[in-house]
Design a protein that fits this description.
Radius of gyration: 26 Å
CATH topology of the largest domain: Spore Coat Polysaccharide Biosynthesis Protein SpsA, Chain A
Shape: globular
Low-confidence stretches: none
Number of helices: 16
Structural class: alpha+beta
Largest sheet: 11 strands, antiparallel
CATH class of the largest domain: Alpha Beta
Distance between the termini: 45 Å
Number of strands: 28
CATH architecture of the largest domain: Alpha-Beta Complex
């Protein structure tokens, strides 16, 4: 038997939101130390959850499955039920039998009828305790089908000055690979951009000290080394590896059984602030990054199942995989990462290489809030890649003004929130892009630009709350929502109103509202707080800075539209040259 998916339990180091793993009905007990569930008579466990349901159509459409089994281990007399949830139809009970569980031999349920043909929907296990003392130990979906060829997988981690994080990740990976059935076919590469991690080399791990050219340079080095060593697949992932090791197991088995040569697997992302809420289950790019299923409550079975149905049916043309967890076949790489330093390299890599990207439930990374990471530096980097993608790729091609609207929208969001330093950095980003692709090569390590942007930042830096006045004075921000919206839009959040700096509201905004424009409407003096509410920064209304920036933005817009076609031709030629193995081989020497 080859394991397709293990049914997994909460793990405190990763996530303890129980409803993402199982739903308890009755007085069911769970032991963290043993991983066992204890069910008194009449109680029930349901595994129709984000981590533990089985998506028939994703596995069936990507993999050549002929057999499918569900094996259950435990003790005591139970009713085992397998539910077949179908889109837009009544759900069906695919299996229901009274069984006696034993620890030595699993109860094996043959579900092979669901593996033959392109079956729709998802399957999940339910357990009803009939005996007085029932324990549930573990279960797995498995197959008797053998892969035609086992992938040789390089797990490539890029790290910079996060020694403890990457050391812990490597330890977790080594421990997992020692017990994983296919562990000898997986090797860990640590590309150390800070040259400070001191990861020892062994039969499972190879460290590569590397010049700091950001994530793009680190992952390009990892891809080069994987290709040089003869690996068939590569998995890009973050150095903190905040995910269950089951991610690796599911990804490897999915790639091993795949009948689609260009199949790639993108891990989803959940925000550490609310571990029950999906941030993105895949994303696509068109004018901006569009996270799929953002806000889905993963505690709610109906929302999880509907997400799986929809993600199975619909795959946007510009779907991309974030490099917190992205596995792909090396033979289908035609373009290496472009030297963005960071931000946007994963988007262009997915679009340029035309992988067939899948997502699987439970293959997910837990990440810190992206909103908290926002700064003039990140906004500079984001705008550059957003504009360049539209200059390079046919699927994203727009008119000159259509492309310029992306930059205008970015800067308008900053200006309306009185974040003039962010707008200044974004304007610089636009102007730098207009210098052509050679600018990226000349500033490949971003050292000068990072220093330039840091010098711009006087107000938009996190400081201790003791340095900030957190008192509020709200009038305009208490208006009815629609009236407040129109007032904010038509007055450009008070920038067209005389004496706004004196009459506008004084507001304190939490992290959840930091990245949004509407919560800032009515404000002239705003303090933004971080997630822990231990730090913040203050921005204040300034007509001088607003209109000065607007004038410079207008002049840049005229120049961009005038030179758009020539710039587009330069970037298409430059992209082909710089997103190549030859370029990185020369650059990383």
């Amino acid at each position: 038997m080859i394991t397709l998916q293990n049914i997994i339990a909460p793990e405190n180091e990763i996530c303890s939101e129980e409803a993402l793993y199982c739903h308890r009905h009755g007085t069911v007990g769970f032991s963290q130390s043993s991983g066992q569930y204890h069910l008194p008579v009449g109680s029930r466990l349901s595994f129709g959850t984000y981590f533990n349901l089985f998506n028939l159509q994703k596995w069936g459409s990507a993999c050549a499955l002929k057999t499918l089994f569900l094996e259950v281990y435990g003790s005591g007399c139970v009713e085992l039920r397998v539910i077949h949830a179908l889109p837009d139809r009544s759900w069906e009970t695919a299996y229901s039998e009274v069984q006696t569980l034993t620890n030595q031999t699993p109860v094996s349920i043959d579900l092979s009828a669901f593996a033959q043909g392109n079956q729709d929907g998802v399957l999940f296990l339910e357990i009803l305790a009939i005996g007085q003392a029932v324990t549930f130990d573990k279960a797995r979906f498995a197959t008797q089908d053998a892969p035609a060829r086992l992938p040789e997988l390089a797990v490539s981690i890029t790290t910079f000055k996060r020694e403890r994080d990457v050391e812990r990740t490597v330890q977790r990976l080594e421990a997992f690979l020692e017990t994983f059935h296919y562990g000898t076919h997986i090797h860990v590469q640590v590309v150390d951009n800070g040259q400070s991690a001191d990861i020892p080399e062994n039969e499972r791990v190879t460290p590569y000290p590397n010049r700091n050219l950001g994530g793009a340079g680190g992952f390009a080095r990892g891809l080069m080394e994987a290709e040089k060593s003869g690996y068939s697949h590569c998995l890009f992932m973050d150095d903190d590896a905040s995910f269950h090791m089951e991610n690796i197991a599911r990804a490897y088995t999915f790639l091993a059984l795949s009948k689609i040569p260009e199949a790639a697997l993108a891990g989803a992302m959940i925000n550490n602030t609310h571990k029950w809420r999906m941030w993105e289950n895949g994303a696509y790019f068109d004018g901006s990054c569009k996270p799929l299923f953002n806000g889905t409550d993963l505690r709610e079975q109906s929302q999880v199942v509907n997400m799986e149905f929809t993600s199975t049916r619909h795959r946007p043309a510009t779907l991309y995989g974030g490099w917190w967890f992205f596995a792909f076949p090396i033979a289908h790489v035609t373009r290496y990462p472009f030297p963005f330093f960071v931000r946007g390299d994963d988007i262009s890599f997915s679009i340029a290489n035309r992988f067939q990207i899948f997502t699987l439930n439970g293959v997910v990374s837990f990440q810190d809030d992206f909103t908290e990471k926002e700064s003039p530096q990140t906004l500079y980097l984001d705008l550059r890649n957003h504009l360049m993608h539209h200059l390079v790729f046919d699927s994203l091609s727009r008119s000159a003004f259509g492309t310029a609207k992306i930059a205008l929208r970015f800067m308008a969001r900053s200006l309306l929130r009185c974040k003039y330093e962010s707008a200044e950095a974004q304007l610089l980003s636009w102007q730098d892009l207009m210098q052509g692709p050679d600018f990226f090569d000349e500033h490949i390590d971003m050292s000068k630009r990072r220093a330039d942007i840091k010098a711009l930042m006087k107000n938009e830096n996190w400081v201790d709350l003791s340095q900030l006045d957190l008192s509020e004075k709200r009038r305009f921000s208490r208006l009815p929502r629609r009236l407040r919206h129109y007032m904010g839009v038509f007055t450009l959040n008070g920038h067209l109103v005389p004496f706004w700096s004196k009459i506008g509201d004084k507001m304190v905004l939490p992290i959840s509202e930091r990245g949004l424009v509407f919560p800032a409407f009515g404000g002239a003096d705003m303090v933004f707080l971080n997630t822990a509410r231990t730090k913040g920064y203050r921005v204040v209304h300034s007509k001088t800075r607003f209109f000065s920036l607007c004038w410079r933005i207008l002049k840049t817009l005229v120049e961009f539209c005038r030179n758009h076609d020539a710039l587009k031709a330069k970037y298409r030629k430059g992209y082909a040259e710089m997103a190549s193995k030859t370029y990185w081989d020369k650059t990383l020497r």
